[in-house]
Amino acid sequence: xxxxxxxxxxxxxxxxxxxxxxxxxxxxxxxxxxxxxxxxxxxxxxxxxxxxxxxxxxxxxxxxxxxxxxxxxxxxxxxx
Length: 80
Prior knowledge:
The chain is mostly helical.
């Protein structure tokens, strides 16, 4: 999974999907600002509290989700 020593080529390869998405959004922002605002700027501001209630329900009803969340956020990982 990880190559040692870390090579710049591997970093560029792994960053290419994110860069392509950012480049596409930048092109849309420059060519059609109204479309960009409708796609990115306006929806990013909205908070949907009904989805937060579902998240709280899942954590309360199924503690396995809480364990998975804690495992995903833990700093200590064992890959052996």
